[in-house]
Write a structure and sequence with these properties.
- This protein is an alpha/beta fold.
- The chain is about 60% helix and about 10% strand.
- It has two domains: about 10-325, ABC transporter type 1, transmembrane domain (ABC transporter transmembrane region fold, Up-down Bundle), CATH 1.20.1560; about 340-420 and about 495-580, 3-Layer(aba) Sandwich (Rossmann fold).
- The strands form three sheets. A six-stranded mixed sheet has the order 6-9-10-3-11-12, with helices on both faces. It has a four-stranded antiparallel sheet with strand order 2-1-4-5, with helices on one face.
- Helix 2 (about 25-60) runs parallel beside helix 5 and helix 3 (about 65-110) runs antiparallel to helix 5.
- It is elongated.
Length: about 625
């Protein structure tokens, strides 16, 4: 099955983006163009000088006529080499700056992509764009762009010089131009879709590979190794076949270019012969015109050879500009909410557009209050948390903070901590600085101390300078979650959404994480997806979900006394705790421990629920 992909920009959109980048760097672009023209002009001097030498020899000049011509040719070679080097440097520098801007903007857009979009298109397409496509453009900037620009400028100046010698010779040499154009018109309509298809095939191959690597344990568990290997092999075969067809198309294009060169040079020699017979031009002038045209064959051939890579880079540019067209969930700026009450109103959501995951969910989390979401797996708790955090957008209904849609809030207003916490490679202190780049060492240690992580952080080999993450000192699941909670403390958001942030810690680590989570949430508006019901005990209010709906809501004691869904969940939790009595403790903010073996001492974190009643949404 073919995966949907992110948008791809049209050629017009790609040209418009590139033109805007060049206009934004007008001085650098102008300097590059001037130096390029100077380099092309010095390149035609030897051919013109040799034409003059032919006329002088025919006029009976002696060997002393060679000296000035040799000096001119030597000086032109030295100056031309220096100017060509400067031109290539300027072109690469300009291209590198544009590419750096493109890379940063594409990464920024990728980081802001809605989760629903990323889940739909797959991560392989995005990985190929910020990886293989960036590499293709980088190669074009460093290897292809200088050659193409110098060849185009040389072609323009050479043809202009031939016309200056004699317009008839210029017209004869121009015979090659329509043949070049015909070759391009034959090639471009076939090559552009072929290169685009090649990039898509590479993206699909990346998707197959990424899915297989990310789901390695599942693949092993279900013995799907052969199936995934076959999928990767099929995707690789498609990419290979398309690449082969593209190369075959390119070789046919080169044959047409060779034909254009033969026609152009032949026309100049025939017309020049006729003009010399009529004494309309000198033999030296015809020689110069022929040499100038022949001088173009190398650059034009290089231009056509590199056109293959230019097409590849053009397809990659269109894919990256397409990423820039995506509508990010959260943009710079935003509207500061006047209050910190988090409200979801009649929210509905579906991942595939057909199967509803949430149905008319309404809830309110008052300022400074903690609301816990509980329910069986698949009830829709994580989806509610993602919508409340602004990661997902509801299909209908609204999620607001202080009356402002959560997708329009300034950055750092709502923090989401999930059980899939990433530890970035680098020193532990720098990992924390992601939340507050200019935090002092004292603020870092205070944040770690608040979530109970300072002792183990200082015990690392190099303390906060210890390299963690990929290739560094390994952290346990509980330590990684504490690190994420310390980032929350440093970020200091008004609202925090915890999505089962203590689920992966195990019984021993859960008590510490629950304590760390409570400390991080102190004084903040919080919505918590409670994997462990000891988290729900201390909440101001509990919302019970089932099949995408709210079926119960209220304080812990009231729900247990009602004998409904929550009471059954609590009884099952208590029975399991009795069978496996691993002690757990609620958050430090509550200042007490709750035994998971029984619901005898539930206490709300801030007293009983004081907000407006939450209505359960039923069918």
């Amino acid at each position: 099955m073919t995966h949907p992909t992110l948008p791809v920009a049209s050629p017009r959109e790609s040209r418009a983006w590139l033109g805007a980048q060049l206009r934004a760097r007008a001085v650098a672009t102008g300097a590059t163009l001037v130096v390029g023209l100077l380099a092309a002009a010095t390149a035609i001097v030897p051919a013109y000088a040799l034409g003059l030498l032919v006329d002088r020899v025919r006029a009976g000049a002696g060997t002393d006529a060679l000296v000035p011509v040799a000096v001119v040719i030597g000086a032109a070679a030295v100056v031309g080499g220096l100017v060509a080097g400067v031109s290539a440097h300027l072109i690469r520098g300009l291209g590198a700056r544009i590419l750096a801007d493109l890379r940063e903007r594409a990464l920024d857009a990728a980081l802001r992509l809605p989760v629903a979009v990323l889940d739909r298109v797959g991560r392989g397409d995005l990985v190929s764009r910020v990886g293989a496509d960036i590499s293709a453009i980088d190669r074009a900037v460093s290897e292809v762009l200088p050659t193409m620009i110098s060849a185009l400028l040389l072609a323009a100046i050479s043809l202009g010089t031939i016309i200056g010698i004699d317009w008839r010779l210029g017209l004869a040499g121009a015979v090659a131009v329509p043949l070049y154009v015909l070759g391009l018109r034959w090639y471009l309509p076939r090559a552009a879709p072929a290169y685009a298809a090649e990039r898509v095939a590479i993206a699909q191959r990346s998707q197959q590979f990424v899915e297989s690597v990310q789901g390695l344990r599942t693949v092993h568990a279900y013995r799907w190794e052969d199936r995934h290997l076959a999928g990767i092999a099929a995707a690789s075969a498609r990419a290979r076949d398309i690449s082969t067809s593209v190369f075959a198309l390119y070789t046919r294009f080169v044959g047409r270019i060779n034909g254009a060169e033969l026609a152009g040079l032949g026309a100049v020699l025939v017309v020049g012969f006729l003009l010399v017979r009529r004494d309309a031009v000198t033999l030296g002038q015809v020689s110069a015109a022929a040499l100038l045209l022949h001088r173009l064959f190398g650059p034009v051939l290089q231009l056509m050879v590199t056109f293959d890579k230019a097409q590849d880079a053009g397809a990659s540019l269109a894919r990256l500009v397409g990423v820039l067209r995506t509508d990010p969930e959260r943009r710079a700026g935003g509207t500061t909410p006047p209050a910190h009450d988090l409200v979801l109103t009649d929210v509905g959501f579906s991942y595939d557009g057909t199967t509803p995951v949430l149905r008319d969910v309404s809830l309110r989390v008052g300022p400074g209050q903690l609301v816990a979401l509980v329910g069986a797996t698949g009830a829709g708790k994580t989806t509610v948390a993602s919508i409340a955090a602004g990661i997902l957008r509801p299909e209908h209904g609204a999620a607001t903070l202080g009356g402002v849609p959560v997708t329009e809030l300034p950055a750092r207003t709502i923090a989401l901590v999930s059980q899939e916490t990433h530890v970035f490679a680098g020193p532990l202190g720098e990992d924390l600085l992601l939340a507050r780049p200019h935090a002092s060492p004292e603020e870092l240690t205070a944040a770690l101390a608040r979530v109970g992580a300072l002792s183990w952080a200082l015990a690392l080999p190099d303390g906060l300078d210890t390299v963690v993450g990929e290739g560094g000192h390994p952290l346990t699941a509980a330590q990684a979650q504490q690190l994420a909670l310390a980032r929350v403390v440093l970020l200091d958001p008004a609202v925090v959404v915890l999505d089962e942030a203590t689920a992966e810690a195990g019984s021993a680590g859960a008590r510490d994480l629950e304590q760390a989570a409570a400390a991080a949430l102190e004084g903040r508006t919080a919505l918590v997806v409670a994997h462990r019901l000891t988290q729900a005990v201390t909440a101001d209010h509990i919302i019970v979900m089932e099949q995408g709906r709210i079926v119960e809501s209220g304080p812990h004691a009231d729900l247990v006394g009602a004998g409904g869904n929550y009471a059954r969940l609590w009884a099952a939790w208590a029975d399991r705790a009795t069978a496996d009595p691993g002690p757990t403790r609620t958050g430090a903010a509550a200042g007490r421990a709750v035994d998971s073996g029984g619901p005898s001492t539930p206490q709300p974190r801030h007293g009983r629920w004081t907000g407006p009643p939450l209505t359960a949404q039923r069918e």
